[in-house]
## 1
Amino acid sequence: MMIEKINYWVGRVLIVLMFVMTLDVLWGVFTRYVVGSQAGWTEELARFLLIWIGILGTAYASGKKMHLSIDLLPPKLGPGGQQNLRRFSNVMVLFFALTVMVIGGCRLLYISARLGQSSAALSIPMQYVYIVIPFSGLLIVLYKLLDLFSPSSQPIE
Amino acid sequence: MEVAILVLSFIILLGLGLPIAWSIGLSSLFTMLVSIPAIPAFTTVAQRMATGLDSFSLLAIPFFVLAGQIMNRGGIARRLINFAKSLVGALPGGLAHVNIIAAMLFGAIAGSAVAAASAIGSSLGKPMEEEGYNKEFSAAVNITSSTMGLVIPPSNILIVYSLASGGVSIAALFLAGYIPGILTGLLLMLVAGIWAKRKGFPTGERTRLSEVLRTFVDALPSLFLLFVVIGGIVAGIFTATEASAAAVLYCLVLTYLYKEVSLKDIPDIFLESIGTTAIVLILIATSMSMSWIMAYENIPQNITDLLLSISDNRIIVLVLINFILLFVGIFMDITPAVLIFTPIFLPVVQELGMDPAHFGIVMVLNLCIGLCTPPVGSVLFVGVGVAGTKIEKVVRPLLPLFIAMLFALILVTFVPGLSLWLPRLFGY
């Protein structure tokens, strides 16, 4: 299964990000109380890591089909209806990922590059932070396409 | 017009089974497309999502989730249950009270209702069944009491509220949550006790004082975390985010000493909490785009005017807002509901002289009820899942517990001192 393979690696990356984020915040507290002055970059780095974990984590959760939804209709429909509903849901998520995350995200990169925005403490160009949006968008598009066209997607439970 | 598109597209997408986060994002996008050209609309939503997550206080959420996950796996939850058992096991319906106290303690440390429901439910479900409680009753008690972790600090949702309200002090909110949370817990115990007595559920044996002491000492390292986290925040030693990261470290060290988790389990525990966190974070991200479009269309201002035109009587407006929130809570998860409705209702109640910290507690307590109702109650699903029963069967025993929660909501809404006494005592 393609989705599981890719998602395994996405998961590994996320674990590293989360680990670094934990260390980073603890380091911030440590420097403030032990060294005496808090390193200014710890807070900024943590915020950027959170954006990455949030957006990339969304792609991960999408691959695992973990997102919360309401199952009011599906049980009442026949298997054919359920299949159609699932297709519709996949197409809508695909639409959002493609338009907002990929197109909107790329444009956001382009605008911040043009304006030359970079972060206050670390002077990271903001496009490096935002790049996670189109990247995760592409992952979600890929997952949804694989789900739409995979033969194994017929029976649900 | 725009409002209609926003509300209708949201309800339709949600009803068709689309994940909540995507339904929120898509309906905001559709609404934007009415008045803004396509490419700028896409960019705006993408940008709102990124800036929505760009907040240091939100960082506390993944950390508290992670700490909860570690506690859950590492034997901390079990020690809390044992301590609760020695305290209240001898009351009629003993294990039900144990569940409520343990859920409150667990919530007080981890700040997540879903984590509490799964941790406490999975460890108490079996002993309760063996002692002759029916599964449905146990599940109902577990579900309702688990939500108290959201009111009792530390609480992720109060952090989200602080963000949505434009910076109400997290320390003040945390302190404000104690009395309402404990009060609700006591009311739940009262109802569970009466119910258990009528059904003839067993009463545990009275525990000796030495046993109480032993379990207390056993649970002490876990309880100590509470003092570190809340004490640290209230004393201004560290921020909620730093406290949450410290909690992760503390839990890791503790479970390592308890030898219940091996080092190679750690990546899995991290990954599990990342999944849970990401679901909340994307809800926050897309809710931010929805609140942006609502502000852009002037919706909060219109609703404020509308509400105040109905009445400027504080009691009537508060009752109205509570009814709306109860209704919203049935269909919406608590995180987007707080993010979307705080900017709408907070100006109204502030106009009427209500303290924003007090309103935060009212709102969260109100939405907790929605977490236990079908069709979107995440705690309900988890609670029913770990108990191995069905939603339809839990509804009956849930009803009296709901009434207890509603009663608590009314008290907390109309007696501001319940929320504000403690924060004022500490000078907030």
## 2
Amino acid sequence: MRILITGASGYIGEQLVLQALTDGHVVFAASRSPIAAVNAKYLPYDLGEYESFRLPDNIDFIFHLAANTKSNSVTPAVEIAAAANLVNASLRSNAKFIFISSQVARPDAPTEYGQTKWEIEQRVLAAGGIVIRPGQVYGGPENGLYGRLCSSLRNLPFIPAFVPSPLIQPIHIQDLVKGLLNCLTLENYSGQIFKLGSIDPISFTFFLQSIARIHNNKSRLLLPIPTFAVLAIIKIIGKSFAARTGLDKLKSLMDVPLMDTKADLSFLRLQLRSLQSGLTKSGRYNRHALIIEGNSLLTYILKSTPSVSLIKIYVRAIESLRDKKPLGFLPIFNRWPILLALLDTPEGRKRTGHSEFIWRLRAAVAIAETSAEDVERFLETPIQSGVLYSTLGLARALCMDTIWRLLSNVCIFIAPKLFDFEKTTDAC
Amino acid sequence: MPADFDVIIVGSGPAGVSAAFPLVEAGLKVMMIDGGESRKQNPFAEPYLSKRALDPKQAEWMIGRDFHSLKNMNAQSPKMRIPAHGYVFNNFAHTNKITSDSFVSIGSMAQGGLSNAWGCGVARLSPQELADFPFPFSDLTSSYSTVARRMGISGANQDDLSDYFGLDEWADAPIKIDAIQGLMLKRYESARLSNPNWNFSLGRARVAALSQNRSGRHACNLSGNCLWGCHQQSLYSASIDLETLKRFHNFTYRSGYIVENVIENGQSSGVQVAVNNTTETILATKVLLAAGTLSTTRLALRALKIDQSVSMQACPVAAFMLWIPRALGQQSSPAFALAQLAFTTRILNNNNQHISGLGSLFNCSGIPISEFTPYLPMTSRYGIDLLKTLLRSCVVGNFYLPGYYTQIKATLNSSGGLKLNGQFREGVDDLMKQGRLQLSQAFRKVGALLMPGSFKLGKPGADLHYGSSLPMRANPAPGETNAKGSLVGMQNIHVIDGASLPSVTEKSHTLTIMANADRIGKIIALELKAALQTKANYQ
């Protein structure tokens, strides 16, 4: 197929170009600045100068992603006219038109952004095109709103928890791209809106927490922020300033209508990956979490950083012998693995729900013991022998053990949450 | 129908090879079949401790590429976790359709059977212990001598266990004792002088491990690899005898044959075997069952079509750890990792009878720390700190009671599988408790402290000293065997492994199984030769 993609240098556009090329399509990448994908044919495209754009011959599909951004300020009227121009061009050359809209598109949307999207949608639908309304897009390279959230969460010492928290329906960028490209195989469609996002909404706060914990690998405290306060600030600082700081995006977030996505997802043959999977580099949350878990358990046992090969053995063992899922102890144990001593007490071994932890700890001991680098952790060297040295060694081990067991007994009262394992589920 | 062989022996373990020798030496046509599992990793030559310090890929033999040791994390014996030994136990229960309820059922489909991974403990039964055997005890003496000399036994020592083990006339000197156990033995020798009526005897263990080179095998070089596989071939395994047998032209060996049925009709008998997904029938004048107590019992019950349960024995066994404070801070040195010292004590039961218990002591340096941490009442992290220092001044031990004290029911189920159900007889807890107290006191006199909480009774069957399911009796009832191991109701099917022992004592029964198999093999050899002679004369 010959495909034109506008906004090809954007967050979604870039991934769409790459995947379309991988799928063997001829891709015309239209954007203001050239894109990195060299196999795509670059066409300069600027919303502000839409009249000068000429549609190449024999285009089968047009994906229209170009939109008003911070760096490319055009008025809503221009944005709508540019879209209408492209829709007309598509009708003339018999190309199918797919418009990437937004979850917030509606005539009475509180933001200009939402209203503009709705206006364009009407023109696309009237011309028999397809409208895609994605939920909160995340994952992949740190671009777009997702990229801004990632970097903000890295820099902020806390996670803003809006109260009441807005509900969002995230979709991983690769899942969205797959859904868009699945539109190429649709037959007999006309003027349809596809809503794509997780079936069950999640709170925006949980979304931010997940980015911080899984993607950024940082534990941060939540700072509750009343939603009305944000709205008030936006009102005070005015629209243009709000747009420049990105606060307007927050505003539209506060007012997201929930979408019923189930039917559309199955129509486009999409099975969305879990948020946890989507936020890891490899895209496999469980693997990623097992690596962290193995590192923590082995560090706890060895008292030093384990070699990569030991962690590999641990992960492969859990993946082939157990349920492949991480135990899900609190992130604090990954930060300070020595704290695992609180869970690893003789009393703790009998605790209900801890049997899998005990199994994995035993496995970690057995695996750690096979490390030639750490042989001195398990076998004494000649220098370490002698009655005095040995007696001191025994006394120290018993003392440390007693201290941690006392601490464990205290913690079970003051911080019982430490002893819980989060249930982790992974759809993929 | 003419028989293909004079004798088919089912199983290549200690019983099978022991019966095979007199038969092939008599010129009879013998076929031996087994399940065909064989060793996949060769034992390494380097000492255990240097391998541990230097081998960057030790996970391959400590954990195994298929995570063998982790898969068997809850198995009772550390042996079950050793990847190199996986083949010994592999596929046994599944292939033989053996299921168990509160009973550890283990067997082997390997060339050489369970002897590939045994503790090498050997002992001879006394005339009193042989009293319930349906033949004069002297009948077994020459067989004991034959098998003991063939295996190579060490541990001969003029000590308090010489009479108990009764093997010194055929045994070589003991393998070098390690510093800790040497210390204990020395303390014992002086302590017994001040305790004339001491109900505790300590001495060298008698083991089927070489202290001198012998026919191609080498003496123990203290590599510490006993648990992992002996490169020297110092440890006896029936697979060594199997290699010798293969050199006889009248001996046929087939591996990978799974016996489904043992059949007997008229003058001939035979086995139906599954091999490469087909079924084959092999006929012979006689079939000797040496498949190991559990599988032999199943095959015999199937042949007899007995659906009532038969009873079986196994020794209750406890494990414990001793700390020898005087040895604290000593450097670990290379050592033999199987039994170095053995001890006996008699415990009074509720009926005022003295029950004899036997145990052995082992050097810890060849055992991974991860085998101990789960039992230590400490956090793993600091438990490792403690054990790393403490283990070198510790020995581990086991303690066996007679097999009578485990009551096992073996029943053939409708699908032809064997179901095992086992529990300890009443009084075992008391006996073990009493044993623990006696041993704790006795060991204190030899400078060793029983580690608190370490004395643990294993699950029924964990000892693997199974036996006596088809016992030899003077007047055998159905499901029993006569003095030749011949099943009642069958002329030519003989049970020659642990299943045919009239009882299982606290002593390791391997040597007795082998001697009995040798005895039966000799009788059958004479009978068959006589029959062949008669036939030749007649023609």
